[in-house]
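Methods — Computational structure assignment.
A single polypeptide chain was analysed. Its primary sequence is given first, followed by the predicted tertiary structure written as structure tokens.
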Amino acid sequence: MEIQLTYRAAAEYDHLRLGSMTPAMAAEYLQGGNILLRTFSESLREQYPYPDLKMRLINSFRAYEPGASAASVTKKVQNWLTGKNQPSSREDVFRIAFALDLTEAQTNFLLGQCTDYGIHYRDGRDVIYAWFLRNDYGYEDARNFFDSLPDVPYLLEFPQYTDSHITKHLQNDFHAVHSLEELRQTYIRNLPSFGALHVRAYQYFEKYLCQLIHPDTGWESVTEEDYSLESVMEQYLSLQMPFRRNRTRYSVTQKLLKQNWPNATALKNIRAHRADVPRKLLLILYVVTENVVDNDYSELDEDYLSIQDRLNNHWWILNAILTDCGMPLLDPRNITDWLVLYALTADEDESMSERMASVIDNLFQEGDQ
């Protein structure tokens, strides 16, 4: 797996590898706006670096949304391009991709940045839109074709032990399609394999969560009572994050870190298969468990490893997990990712979760008084 970092992202990663910041210094670094955050506007202009970007989006979205006023469409596009906000729906990201004739890879990148996940080849809409993008059709063609297809059957049970490579099988199957009729037949043939939720991400979530629900005392003769999800949230996952609702006094950094921070309700919804696993939660679980989910030997436990070695190893392991789940790779120009990477530099005298909690505590002390 080859990972390319931009100059600014590589500079942030190298800064973290030095291991020279205390948690208080890390909080000050984040709060001081030292990281040039990657914005959707920047990514969009990188994918389409042409002067007609704004007008192309406006004209396309007016065609996609004939009932919307010209002013509302212009305002929406303007907000994206000025960095005021970014698309929150996958449909809008696909519309942007069709409007700009983006490739499948470019679309996958923008989806990941906006919605936690790239193109999901077990989701009927995603796989159809991806095929139409790949074959240079328009958005209306893709939408009309998808609307003509039969509904995906409702699954009575979540596929706990689904083949971990089923998504790749589906992706390959649809890549081999060359006509609309073939596409329809392939879609119908694969209906039983479709599902909106990401099975691999859930499997990682359940694996990490079980470690927290069923604590290991380290003594065979001593057992500890299982934790409830509320206890897991309070004991392990809160990490000093304040839970007050009023965020008007928070800085941009504080708001970004607090946004979508997990809670007990979110954990319950995920376990009940009513919601997907958020990328932020998966990252937090990795930090809190230190990716220790069995008793196998790990070189990361060795004292002779330097901070640089430890961070590099975690970097590759965690990126492999994110790739397996269809999530974007770690980005040192993302506030949450930066904090996770900082936590991964903890030494043998400090746990990763303690390191992360200490930064959060320092970061929110002033803003939560």
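Note: The chain has 19 helices and no strands.
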